[in-house]
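We treat protein structure as text, and this decision shapes the records that our systems exchange. This encoding replaces a full spatial description with a residue-level series of whole-number codes. Below, we set out a record of this kind in full and without editing:
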Amino acid sequence: MQKLINRSVAVLFFIICTLYSLVTFASTSTFHHQMQIQLSPDTSEIRVKDHIQIPMHVQNQEIPTQLDFFLHAGLTITDIQGAQIKAQGSEVALKSRSISIKHYTLTLPPGQKKFTLHFSGKINHPVQGPGQEYARSFSYTPGVISNEGIFLANSSAWYPQFEDDVMVSFRLDIQVPADWDVVSQGTMVREQKTATTQNVVWEETQPQDDIYIVAGRYQRYTQSAGAVNALVYLRSADEALAQKYLDTTAQYIAMYNKLLGPYPYTKFALVENFWETGYGMPSFTLLGPKVIRFPFILHSSYPHEILHNYWGNGVFVDYAKGNWAEGLTAYLADHLVNEQRGKGEEYRRDVLQKYADFVNKEKDFPIIQFVSRHSASSEAVGYGKTMLFFHMLRQELGDENFVRALRQFYKQFKFKQATFADLLTTINATSGQDFSAQFEQWVHRAGAPDLLLREAETERTADGFKLTLTVEQTQSGDPYRLRVPVSVTLEGEDMATQSHIIIDQRTQTIEMDFHARPVRIDLDPHFDVFRRLDSREIPSALSQGFGAEKPLLILPARADKQILEAYRALAANWQKTQSNQLEVITDDQLTALPADRTIWIMGWQNKFAETVAKTLADRGVTYQQKKLQLDQKTYPQAEHAVVLTTRQPSNPDKTLLWIASDNPKTIAELANKLPHYRKYSYLVFKGDELTNIDKGQWPITQSPLSQWIKQKDDHAIRTTHTGITKPRRALAELPPVFSESRMLSDITHLASESFKGRELGTPELDTAATYIAKQFQQIGLMPGGDSNSYFQIWQQDVGVPKGNITLRNVIGILPGTNPQLAGQSLIIGAHYDHLGTGWPDVRAAHQGKIHYGADDNASGIAVMLELARQIVPKWQPERTIIFVAFTGEEADLLGSKHYIRNTKNYPTEKIIAMLNLDTVGRLENNPVTVFGTGTARELVHVFRGASFVTGIPVNAVQDDFGSSDQAAFIQAGVPAVQFFASAHEDYHAPGDTVDKIDSSGLVKVAAILKEATEYLANRIEPLTVTLPSQTTQAEPTEAKAKEKRTASLGTVPDFSYQGGGVRVDSIIPGSPAQQAQLQTGDILIQLAGQPISDLASYANILRTLKAGEKTELKYQRDSEVNTVEVMLVER
């Protein structure tokens, strides 16, 4: 959120100052305050000396200037210089303020433009609970000075408040106790600390509509974000949390700088409050202690607050003419983050669902009247409708013109008030079009269109086919002019044809021509138009219960007395806190459920509970023998609280909602918790603490805007396929913390021709080792090799034709800081050797050619180096992190096996885990695959959490296939995983070159690696290892290259598949698999008479076969087993 209007945003001010020097303020448009402030948390007192310069527009050279202002009633003016002052009566209580104030009239002599006020007193308004109706509201105080913290803002009237729309600028010299710190808008000019006091000077010369002071006992963290200083103020030390916010701040400021223009302030600070808040002020945000620790906040609410420094705190809102800033901020923050994650359509549908569920005719209003949100319905209009209005503008303008208009609007109105009319003028000027009609119907008109696809029919023409469709607007009032996206599926084509139609009549017939037969039509398939959704487009959800008019709540008369009373208390709570009045009865008062109402059904014992379960039978829901079956899982009644929703069978506009628990304590907690889960169709909670263990939305199976097209010639349509639509690019991409260009540079260097493929035992491989060691040194890693070097060097006989050669691992160390974990380590590894010109693994056709090894494994080295660059200067991990570039991976894991046998200061048995990077350079649209997450019980959860926090999909595979250096650690009993991007035909081939690397994918791999590394390096407890204990291996006198596989079928496996056999992900063109007509999704179950249980067994079977041999392959397609003869070819 930005600031609560009616001056109700409470933001703290801290005050520090003893010295005062008057400076000339350049601007003549603001009331400029130059203050010396003393804050005393122990006594709630504030003392202020305020030198005020009035703006030019209120000055008068001929006659005395009279100005009225307000001040907090608890403050007393003790002296005035340069003017006269008169109190106007006693204390005043205003509707717009929750405090009492005093009214004063100030008189300045002709030509006088400066005066000084001295005032002091107490401000201490206890934090009050949140508003009753709105579930998202926070506790609130207009202002407080206490030992817990300080919060002062315009709402506190802590400084002289002149006319309503007055703009201010300031220089604040604030004094607080020595162990306190203080934050305000603008730039920190100076700070000075003594044994008893801390003085901080904050200055803001640009116009502001408020002056905030927030103070507390803070740990301050800072980091440069280009031209902007990123700051974090935490109430207790937490360097890891601070670093996440510092990095995220830099990312979003960089993104918005590129999208909109230069960030308008010199800093952005995250400030932790002492009660739960979600406030956004100019150049900082004030978030509650729980809020800032929610992992999703970093990429949801936090960018919203950063963006408010452009919209609302950079370009100001003239609230009398409508608040456009919340909708625009929601669009360019909340919607954009979802769009970047491929969830833009889902987000827009949720916005439209909220409008449908909470906004009826009585609660609707034009967005030009929106000031601030105070209820679900006001949010649905002021945020949701406004957000979709900007989306529709973007669709009509195109991305380039839309961004150009926003950049111009920001540039023109920075630090000025702007209105919807100003926005319209800017868009018209930059686009050369007139959008007056669009603004009139969406900004100035209440309501929304209702659309219905009445009919769609096609007939053959001389040039192809003509599609005729009839569309209706069924809402009351005048029709809207709508630009509606259309997706048409053509017979025999995978991709849908996309276009748009203009609908501006009550009933409209539209004709469209196609080269092929249209079989299906979908209007607005991605929810791009603001409209009132039909109930068939919205899953049943809790929001319909909370948004319904006159809902009925049915208590279970047969329930235990304590449980029944708990449900009564829940109903009483909702009667107070929800906007629509509940009618509460018991189930013995009804013989049947009324069909014309939305109904809450409470309790397992409710006689109507079975009605809900039966209605959901087609979704796999059953309730028998005190057990609920849901989503293929069973939940015993005694241990769980559940919420199920479904549409009324005879009236889909109404909803049935069943809440059930046998625990009075959890029922009471559900009353507070459920309003925060409004969009969900079903929920399952476990235990007294109500841990949410399952939630979701029912799938949508029909829409009044989708039809299978009637064929005028009665042609039979045999497909059920809906055409695929092109994926959309997000309006902007979030710059990574990790550098694509730097990683690509490392790969380009290591995979260049001069390294000749980095073959084992060659000078070129030694040069690669030297390069990596130099990078380790520049990064600041401590040497971890022999004789205080980065190299672990040994000699070993690797067999014919190389014999005895010198090998080198390259090792760098980031020491841990916890003495209790001495000797323990986390290994980050990647091998740097490759095949050179074909040793030890080469296909016959490639013998003698350079195998560049860009993906395998210059990519892994690059990601490892980039992680080290990012964390070594910033982290102080509990446990030592050891970075190892292994040699000899291509020759049976020689480097990793040697490291395990010869690590001294950090023994193998004290390694918490090993994270291996191998072949991570071609991610494209695939999830990051992590093999071996089953080697410790916690690992699958570590990587699921990393995926959640970053928004990057992760495919966590329990099994490890033993093909890279992690296998050596697993064999030694150490939990280990391999990061992997994708399989491709250039594996171990000369085509593995740098031009095919997906550099943006490297960033995604690095982001997941960083999250896993941070957790494992700072987890005090060891992991729960699921491997059998291992015995130490004897040092071998000779190592041999792993047995070559010479034959290939030409399939690329699906590494995410967890079942028996090997599922095919793709087919290499021209391969035996293609000739045998194998398809994606087929499951290979037997080859050459040997069963295929998994990837490892499949690879072992292929090693026993030769190219040119004919052999029998069995595979499963759907439920049928097929047999085919194949002739394998050389790899």
User: Anything to note?
Assistant: DSSP finds 21 helices and 57 strands in the chain. The two ends are 59 Å apart (CA to CA). The chain has a mean pLDDT of 90. The CA atoms of residues 26 and 1076 lie 80 Å apart.
